[in-house]
Amino acid sequence: MTGSICVLAEQWRGRISEVTYEALALGREVADRGGVQLTAILTGCNCREMTRMLGAADSVVYVDHALLAEMVPQTCADALVQVFAGARPRVLLVPLTNISLGIGTLVGIRMGVPVINFCKDVTISGDRLEAHCVMYGGKIEATVEAGAPSGPQPAVLGLWPGARTADKGRAERDVPVTDMPVVLDDARAIRLCRYIEPEAGDVDLTKEEALVAVGRGVQDRGNLPLVEELAKALGGAVCGSRPVIDQGWLPLSRQIGKSGLTVKPKLYVALGISGAPEHVEGMKDAGLIVAVNSDAHAPIFSVAHYGIVGDVLETLPALTAAIEARKAAAPHA
Amino acid sequence: MHILVLLKMVPDVVEDLEIASDGKGLDLDYLRMILSESDDHALEQALLLKERHGGKVTVLALDAPEVDDALFTAAAKGADRVVKVVGMDAGFTTRQAAGFFSQVIADQAGLLPADLILTGVQAIDDLDGLVAPLVADEFRMPYLGIITGIMVDASGKTARAIKEFPSGVRGEFEVKLPAVLGVQAAEKPPRYVPVAKVRAAMKSGKIESAEVPTLVDGGWLAVNIMEMKRNEPASQAEMLEGPTEQVCNTLCGILAGRGLV
Ligand SMILES: Cc1cc2nc3c(=O)[nH]c(=O)nc-3n(C[C@H](O)[C@H](O)[C@H](O)COP(=O)(O)OP(=O)(O)OC[C@H]3O[C@@H](n4cnc5c(N)ncnc54)[C@H](O)[C@@H]3O)c2cc1C
Ligand SMILES: Nc1ncnc2c1ncn2[C@@H]1O[C@H](COP(=O)(O)O)[C@@H](O)[C@H]1O
Predict the structure, then answer these.
(1) What residues does A179 pair with on adjacent strands?
(2) Confidence at residue B235, expressed as pLDDT on a 0 to 100 scale
(3) Chain B: residue whose CA lies nearest to A129
(4) How far is CA A63 from CA A47, A50, A174, B15, in A?
(5) Is the CB of residue B248 less than 8 Å from the CB of residue A318?
(6) Is the model's pTM score more than 0.90?
């Protein structure tokens, strides 16, 4: 594994996460360019059969332990540090998701190597490692170099969801698997008691063809009826970004993004949403994305197909009226 | 119960961000600094726990423009002790920030023991790590992030923490105390505090200062920004321009053309 490109394969509740395949896709590119091996590392308990899903890698290191059955970041980090004790990789790619958040930081500090978050691209030339990162809620892109130039050393890279398409890293086959025993502390400072399933919402947002999403830019709960009217005109449903849900303006079942739902409607209208990576993660694959934002530099415009720079409170009624007028003019459309 | 809250100021990204002339960072002259959003939730969660279980909330914030406002606001909201960590050069990384917090927590009288150390789950500039796991590792405490609720058990020795997973699923964890938790959202939105109360807190002027010791130079851990540029998102989307009504009609035509209206 020395010098190889490694990917932490996230498995959660019996499935490999989508962002893992993105990480494998990027890892494959980097490994091929550098002529080195791509190794996936799967931690868990009784889930060896999932190694088949990691066919984009040249080989898989499988770490089986009862304490790895559920994802506790410190426990997983303990295991990874042991995996790398004998053979240090060139790069460990960790998906930045709600499953693994924190693991990259912990592995980095325990191995004494640099950590770079929010990576969407990596290039390695000789001893230099350069990452391209998304910062400040998507407003800034940075080129980042890791480590002092004293020979190649490992780096832990947090993968920005959306860096690659998951399909590019998806390959099912029998991959060579190495079992790696680890010793983990059973004192259990942290223990999962149970999962709390999301309450079923009144509508299944993942089945809607049109979604009208509101963000903090809608400013006040009192403006939500305007949003409902647009959704009604489009025959769709209302959803929102995290701050809108945290404020209690919409129920949790309407949250789109990293912690909420991932949706792929035919039409996604983003109103007063900045387009932070955590939101974009949940809606980037919508068929047509329209964004309205008063800030011409809002990152949402980099995923939108059509953009309007303007006040959402002005645009909302005007758009609803335009749609209603068109429907009235062409009643059979 | 004693709860420590760690706060960091970050640029307000609702404003336009300008790049510094060396092309490697943000132009500080144009920045408006605000409290990192999830740190604000960490503070709120601490105050809610204090209301429920009694005890004391101590807030530590790293020096930055507007940090006094954030600390006085915290005091006005109910924090018992507010400490400003001073003496570092501007432009520190998250790994250094965690180092400053850890040193001050270890050195300053009365900060330990703490039952809980709360901070935000992630800030928009956390390029080289996250504060919560770094501080947890320093003190060999349990760590969990993306927390949206905390209940301390009657014994005071364990807490139940709610952590967010993907797709709206949450996990209820038992965590041994003391622990470091990265808060995503408090159980209630951060409370509003009237300006008059913040002014009153300013008058009583009780921000303490704690000088940071020099950190051991971890040059090998360095993460250097070579170039920064503004994402130019408007170059990606087709921007519809003109008076509102006209723009809306154009958009409506586009939607109709695709059978979406
Ligand atoms: C671990 C983790 C998980 C997360 N999970 C999620 C998630 O599942 N979903 C999610 O959405 N976020 C999530 N977030 C939060 C995310 O980082 C952002 O903070 C959030 O998406 C911002 O929401 P927003 O765009 O509504 O608000 P802001 O970022 O505050 O943006 C508001 C926008 O409205 C615009 N605006 C203001 N006034 C007007 C007006 N009058 N007219 C038009 N535009 C206006 C502003 O220009 C701005 O762009 C998560 C964060 C973390 C760290
Ligand atoms: N803030 C919290 N702290 C700890 N546990 C919680 C909290 N909120 C909810 N729970 C647990 O989650 C369960 C369901 O919560 P809910 O669906 O949010 O009403 C409750 O029965 C609690 O056990």
Answers:
(1) A62
(2) 72
(3) B223
(4) 10, 12, 17, 46
(5) yes
(6) yes
